[in-house]
Design brief:
With about 260 residues, the protein is α/β, with parallel strands linked by helices. It has two domains: about 190 residues, Rossmann fold; about 50 residues, no CATH class. The chain has eleven helices and six strands. It has a six-stranded parallel beta sheet with strand order 2-3-1-4-5-6, with helices on both faces. The radius of gyration is 18 Å and the shape is globular.
């Protein structure tokens, strides 16, 4: 399969979800939501923070796996271990990989020596690329450059439209209308990619100040200061998760999630 086409696969109990995209588009929040969704359903999750220079996922989850260093070899060693764990795991399990800080190049080097999607297919693992997109044209250009590098060519694709970066005074529909009309975006969707808008979470900064995952804060768990999130913020989180689930269902994308 060439040309960065996105192919829908039969739902699998094992998933490899790789988050791509420029910084500050809510990628860590998206993976946090996926991790918490799986954990609440008591499904096993392996978290990988590949950005050793600017770690974010591992700050929320100290047990997340990180490369020993910043070299492609370090990344390859880590991914080899993670893929082995996915393949050998006796039941449903998902690996969520946060790519950043140039580690997409390390992933390209790793894939050069391994048919990653082929390995996943043979091992019963569903490979999913989650591309974070804001309304700026550079966001789409960056995502297309990664797609065209064939990093997960042949896997399934989510195009996550992050409403958190929409400017004040604009509605998400207005902000993303030009992106949705771009021929490259339209062609990507026609090839099988699934666009999913993700709402802004107004209380995110408060949640992060507690040092908690999203569902933990929603459940009223005490933060690092010993205090839980307030009832208004807990409602905001509950409503955000409800819409998060509904929008993935509308996009026929739930089977791609952990």
């Amino acid at each position: 399969m060439t040309g960065g086409q996105a192919v829908r696969r039969v739902a699998s109990g094992k998933k490899l979800v790789v988050r791509f995209g420029r910084g500050r588009l809510g990628g860590t929040t998206y993976l946090d939501a996926l991790a918490q969704r799986a954990m609440q359903a008591e499904r096993a999750v392996i978290l990988v923070d590949a950005d050793v220079r600017n770690p974010s996922l591992s700050r929320l989850y100290p047990a997340a796996r990180v490369p020993a260093g910043g070299s492609p070899e370090d990344f390859a060693e880590l991914m080899t271990e993670v893929l082995g764990t996915l393949s050998d795991h006796p039941g449903p399990v998902s690996a969520l990989v946060d790519i950043g800080g140039g580690q997409d190049r390390a992933l390209a080097d790793f894939i050069r020596d391994l048919n990653l999607v082929g390995f996943c297919q043979e091992s019963g693992v569903q490979a999913v690329g989650a591309y974070m997109l804001g309304p700026h044209p550079d966001d789409l250009a960056h995502a297309l450059s990664l797609r065209d590098a064939g990093l997960l060519d042949g896997g399934s694709t989510l195009l996550v439209l992050s409403e958190a970066v929409v400017k004040r005074g604009q509605t998400p529909e207005m902000a993303f209308a030009p992106l949705r009309r771009e021929s490259a975006f339209v062609g990507w969707v026609e090839a099988g990619a699934l666009p999913v808008p993700v709402r802004n979470l107004a209380c995110l900064e408060k949640v992060r100040s507690l040092g908690l995952g999203l569902a933990e804060a929603m459940a009223g768990k005490a933060g690092e200061d010993g205090k839980p999130l307030g009832p208004v913020e807990r409602f905001q989180l509950k409503d955000w998760f409800r819409v998060f689930e509904a929008r993935h269902a509308e996009a026929d994308a739930l089977e791609l999630l952990p």
